[in-house]
Amino acid sequence: MQQRWNRKYLKSFGLVTDEGVLTNAGVLFSDDCRIPQSRLYCTRWDGVEKTDAINDAEYKGNILMLLREALAFVKSNTRRGWEKLPTGRRNKPDYAERAVLEGLVNHFIHRDYTVVGGEVHLDIYDDRIVLTSPGGMYNGLMVQDLNLDEISSERRNPVLADVMAQLDFMEKRGSGLRRIIDETQSLDCYREDRHPLFKSNASQFMTTLYSMDYDAAEGSKLALSWHQVGTKLALSRDKVELLMKMMVDYVYAKDLREAMGWKDSTKFKKKYLNPLIENGLVELSNPDKPTSPSQRYRLTEKGRALLEIMSN
């Protein structure tokens, strides 16, 4: 049976004072959070280094809102592969969803909010997700030098941790790092060289989660996302998805053009069709005669895989 909410819980959790005024922790959970350090920077990089950004976003607000936006950004900028089996298919996710959630929660809860201008960074590369937040280990030690099974539960922000534990967003025993590892290792496609890494110094903490579906030899193919196509086409996700759904089977350019609201056939092909063809997402019915008036267009296997990612 669900427990009814009582305002006294705000005080018992340490979210308000005896006078009914929000504490700093309370402000971090409030709708009108005005702590400037409560920010999140998200970037999807093109490749495995910080070169060109495919997608980026900045958010300010309470912890729960930042967590929601971070999870949405991860979902939109990573892919879920699948393997054909005799009786169907098996999902081969890039990352363990609970490991990503646990990592994000750890960085929002255990970060140092006294660092003016500090924020949580979420960087997604072709081969990994990197989470960075201000403030090292609360006890001053370096996490990379410790046995994770023996780390004591010393919390910089105990009120935040208690509330998030009550909401089932994190472990109560201070075993979040071990949970990240266990959830990652539980994946069917887990490989030892994709083991999560944790690193800290005096000023920051970093968590690295490696993609289970990344292959360096085929990095651009495996890391393909709608953002890469959308950026080249300068289209929204909805328009990219609509365009590709019309090409599940062969279709004439005229029908595509009319559906997208274009009159100029040359500009339409340059803006829409050519980039999809160049990326190996669309094939021609008559590739030997690209300008044939009877030419039709259809998604390749690679294009179908991308459409499936977009539809999930």
Describe what this molecule looks like in 3D.
It is a single chain. With 312 residues, the protein is α+β, with helices and mostly antiparallel strands. It folds into two domains: 8-212, 2-Layer Sandwich (Heat Shock Protein 90), CATH 3.30.565; 224-311, Winged helix-like DNA-binding domain superfamily/Winged helix DNA-binding domain (Arc Repressor Mutant, subunit A, Orthogonal Bundle). It is built from twelve helices and eleven strands. The chain has helices at 8-12, 24-29, 63-77, 97-109, 158-166, 176-185, 219-222, 226-233, 237-245, 253-259, 265-278, 301-311, and strands at 39-45, 53-60, 80-85, 88-93, 120-124, 128-134, 197-200, 204-210, 251-252, 282-284, 296-299. The strands form three sheets. The chain has a six-stranded mixed beta sheet. Strands 9-11-10 form a three-stranded antiparallel beta sheet. Strands 3-4 form a two-stranded antiparallel sheet. Helix 3 (63-77) packs antiparallel against helix 4, helix 4 (97-109) runs antiparallel to helix 6 (176-185) and helix 9 crosses helix 12. The protein is elongated, with a radius of gyration of 23 Å. Residues 217-224 have low confidence and may be disordered.
